[in-house]
What we know:
With 423 residues, the chain is mainly beta.
Amino acid sequence: MSAPTTGSVHLERGGSPYTNQPVSADQLLESVVVWQGFFDDEVAAANGTLTYIVSAGTAAGNTQLAMEVVPGTIPGGSDVLSLALSQLLDGVNVDVQVPQALHVTVAAKNGAGAFTVVAAAPLVLDGRLPSVGTVEIVSGATVAASEPVLALDGASMIAPTSRVVQTSASNVAVAWSAFSDGRGTLVDCELSLVDLASGTPVANGVAKVNCSTAGRAELGGLDLATGLPGFVAIITATDAAGLAASMDSAGVPLVVDATPPVVKGVRDGLVAGFSADVNCGPRFGSTLGSVTRVDAVAVVADTVTDGGGDASALPLTAYTQLGAQWSAVIDDESGVAAVQVAVATSPGSDGDVMAWQDVPASASAAALRIAPQPVGRHLFVGVRAQNGAGQWSEGAWSDGVMMVCGEGDEAVECSFGGAFVCS
């Protein structure tokens, strides 16, 4: 008895035959081997059926992984049959992390033991995920983070060392370096802007991008909530095998800061430990050096210097020294980037005696050396701050001091030149 005539064998998933694309572990178990067209005239004449032996291996003709016997149903052959690979490979550990081929063959055998073997086109097993690039939000300024944010699952996570801050709640720009896939071309890249508070993408915050090369995308028409915890950008790359890998910007999340910093507790003087602005400056019989100052005092000289930028070498009659201290500069979202002080003859007059001058953002007090002031003049010290998003606060002003010694005053108590008392 001769062997059955040759039929056809192919592998498919979801009714669609494979065309050499790589296959992941999940896709492998969703696949089916289909065969048809084997026939044997003598078996048909005897009203018999063929027996089919389905086998799988990692080399052509190799059956070391699995083998299954499937009985035919139509006399002589002409069966159209299939077998799920999940059944054929049940209990078999197939390593798809190491790229390799899976060979599936079908042998049609008649009653005399003669058989015909046909192999399906091999499956390329490759479960490696795409390689991810970096993702960062580039529409704002990067500042040091002072408060922790939340992970996507709502649980506390290690506080990032920095965050991106911006004032716009409607537009976000995201940049990335190239993602790649060892098997070929990425078939899909999706950018999502995710709210850390809910763990879900924001409205209008999802877009298709080309992440196979480095790029940048703008998300517009957003309505982002201000304040913490903020947002992260996520890019998910999917390859031809349906495998996906994601990278996000959670190391540097985005926070929308719509409000300027707040300056609190500005009062005159440099004496520490008082809730009111008492002992604002030198008194009769004292010297400037004897004043007890608070920590982090910044010395600010406007136009009064010794020619080398140092007013401290001048005689005390050459300038008036004011003092001011403040309890806090607060901006939870983007932190404090800059602090400035000014001196004016009325609160809010924008520094008509001394224009706004920078002091260290960490300072909590300032000694202000200005030109000698006339007796009886009231002076006010203002403090303002800028946050990491570039917003300036309104000036917060002290309640003022009155000059009791001024330029040309010969009174004994004016021997210090710039002495003053609180008003």
